[in-house]
Design a protein that fits this description.
- The longest helix has 12 residues.
- Strand 12 and strand 13 form a beta hairpin.
- Strands 2, 6, 7, 9, 10, 12 and 13 form a 7-stranded mixed sheet that branches.
- Helices cover 8% and strands 52% of the residues.
- It contains 2 helices and 21 strands.
Length: 279
């Protein structure tokens, strides 16, 4: 594996926005928007009516064409992370985006953290009022094969009453939730972590499920635009695994104190996500 250190995202996004594929405004009077189409795939918005507290379960459904990929939240050397923006006039706020377990892809000197199959990113939304809800959203993703295509679309839908049953939408969102990494558990967690004084290596000790062999896949996400995956000297003894993660170049004058970094660990068919505190 290699260290990923992305260029400042603002400059990158400003450059690619000029070439973005802008799909027409795709609306629907239901719980799914129309599909927005692009060269390498399509996407749409799926949602259920708000509950009594105004909370809305939703998802951005992305279907890359065969041979294409779309990106995780920290995408790799030069990928585009998913972005979802809700129009303020909708009276709906976006609280969180969930990311199903991704894959690692290597081609030459390029590493991508992405999805090569249909994926739904769970969205947690909140509606301000108690009346009808119309969601106007802008989604911006990247899809790549031999070339990378920025794909932007405006997606709109009108939500019905909560008492109505929508089995297709419920099945899509339930399946998306099932693909998310799990929180730490007694048999799958990070038991110790320490950054070296020179901030070049992060030492991790993990409890892993079962008596598997080999190193798990570990993705450490630091400051925005930085992910680190290169393991040094990993050793697995039963359910215990110890390794060092090589830390690439951090932002100038970066202060680690008080920061929270993310860690995704994939061990066989199981995946766990947690945070590391640096106090």
């Amino acid at each position: 594996m290699m260290i990923i250190s992305l260029a400042p995202r603002g400059l990158f996004m400003a450059a690619i926005s000029l070439a973005a594929t802008l799909a027409p405004f795709c609306s629907a009077q239901a719980e799914m928007s129309a599909w927005a189409e692009a060269e390498g795939g399509r996407m749409r918005l799926v949602a259920l009516a708000p509950d009594a507290g105004g909370r809305i379960r939703a998802g951005l459904q992305i279907e890359p064409k065969p041979g294409w990929i779309t990106y995780w939240r920290e995408p790799g050397n030069s990928g585009i992370p998913p972005q979802v923006t809700i129009a303020p006039a909708s009276g709906v706020t976006l609280d969180a985006i969930g990311y199903p377990v991704p894959k690692h892809f290597f081609k030459g000197g390029i590493e991508d953290i992405a999805y090569d199959a249909p994926v739904t990113l769970p969205l947690s939304l909140t509606a301000a009022g108690k009346g009808g809800v119309e969601i106007d959203a802008s989604a911006f993703i990247g899809i790549c094969k031999d070339i990378c295509v920025p794909f932007q679309a405006n997606l709109s839908l009108k939500l019905g009453r909560a008492m109505q049953s929508h089995p297709e939408e419920e099945a899509i969102l339930a399946a998306a939730d099932a693909t998310l990494p799990k929180p730490p558990s007694d048999d799958f967690k990070i038991t110790a972590h320490a950054m070296s004084p020179d901030r070049k290596t992060l030492s991790l000790t993990l409890a892993l499920p079962g008596d598997g062999k080999g190193a798990p896949d570990i993705i450490v996400t630091g400051p925005s635009g930085h992910a680190f995956t290169k393991q040094i000297g990993g050793k697995r003894e039963g359910a215990t695994f110890k390794t060092d993660i090589a830390i690439g170049k951090l932002p100038q004058n970066f202060d680690l104190r008080g920061k929270r970094w993310g860690v995704l660990v994939i061990d066989g068919a199981r995946a766990m996500e947690t945070t590391l505190a640096f106090d």
